[in-house]
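Quick note —
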Amino acid sequence: MKDYTFALQPALADEPGRQGLFSGFAPGTVTLPKGFRVSGKFKPLPVDIILEKDVAVTMRDGVTIYTDVLRPVTDEQVPVIVAWSPYGKSRGNAPQYDDLFRLLGMDTSVLSGLHKFEGPDPAYWCAKGYAICHPDPRGTYNSEGDARWWNRLEGEDFHDLVEWCGVQDWSNGKVGASGNSYLTASQWFMAAERTPHLAAIAPWEGMSDIYRDLIMRGGIPDYGFAETLRYAYIGKNQREDLILDAKAHPLRDELWEQRAPEFAMIEVPAYVVASYSNSIHTPGTFRGWREIGSTRKWLRVHATMEWPDYYVEEHQADLLRFFDRFLKDIDNGWDKTPAVRYTLHDLEGNDRVNLTATQFPPTQAVTTQFYLDAGTGAMVTGARPAAKASYDATARDGNAQFTLTVDSETAFIGYPGLRLFAEAEGADDMDIFVLLQKLDADGNALGQITIPNKSPQMQAMTREGASILHYKGSNGRLRASMRHLDDERSTEDLPVHSFDQVEKLAPGEIVALDFDLFPMGMLLYPGQQLRLTVGGYNTLGGAMPGTENLMPDNRGRHVIHTGGDHASFLRMGTMPGRAALG
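Predicted structure written out below.
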């Protein structure tokens, strides 16, 4: 592999709030007895657990990283689950993370505190006959080298650790991977390395193309969450810097190719968990599920947020069945699990979950083209006469809206695609944001807090930000000058932009813009509306509390053309609501 040069910055020193009970560097082996408690906030261990702390593992280039291994007390060889992330191998009980979970309304007393942040709980898995491997990747904490950040080189390191796990005398030679967010993104890269001892992966929401999903989504610079992540890297040397990379490489060149895995190379069984509502994970998780080469893959689309979803007892048991099948070779009927289990949100307290299908969107969904009518503000199925609408591109509330009213219970499901004919007045470019929402019969926009804490304070905190925690509908964004499509990868339902060239607009030029909105499953009842809002401002705000919103580069007015020779339309799968129930 060519050694692409990623930008580097010094890593940060550790802080007390990030430290957990076993954070100190102390190589050695201890047995944590049944009943042991990290603290009164966490549950006691249900079994004895062997903790091998700060075990040195050598990467292929000679760099040493350190990992903790937690495994059951048994003479039998056991499978291993690896949780790869830079957030600290012994810090799941650190105040920083415990306070965050409690803010979200999660009951941490159901966890042992031995888990990595966003990772599997050793107390649960050791009791089920599994070992858990908690590495500090290269360049983090006491591990040597410079920290790598979501790229194929990091996938090579992860590969090397999996191979180390596979040949330990306590290992049965089968290794899996699990966890949320970073622990998902890293799985894509590692699995694409065709790691021999890897038996299965469980990506539970996470990005899969760092340019498209995070730093330059829609071709628009968005550094808010990447700025937050800069402070997650604790170590003694340097760490890669996504923001500096984006500023030096604004187009999707070979550097960014290295920050996207080769999905076709992933052939191991995969249990993929996604949602429609995570503003940085949703498209990447669905992309990973669609594009991996494995013929043994399962998708479950849940209705909340990944952290509470991951630790629900029912879902842990489901994951156990998956790993038992492929890491222990137990014939437990997992293979009969529906290929797709999906959700339909109604955003009124009656979401329909665990609906089954052979594909996503389900075969019952009929793709329908709804044409925008700027003259009436409606979306209709027939051709419309030429019309146009415009808005102040610099105003937070500047937008054009189009609505569709349903007369029967209707599910809108799949990958919404928007073809928009637009013109810039007083500018040579446009940053356009679109949002597809459900309105009740009185015209009120509906949304849903995705975490257990649904207090008025959380409602206020997420009203104009923290979009991961408050689902408002399917969204998309695009910079007009980055509109060029990748013809080899694009399909009728899923446009894929190349992001490798800049095409500025000439005065008076009307261009066709193709938006790939987040996949969705939305149930509407008679008299309710689906509303499409087109504007020049990201009304969703930043991803998490404290994450800054991006600043669009807009001037003048945006003109939206509809009907006639410029028939803007929304393409969407629909089916009767009763069809989802079989």
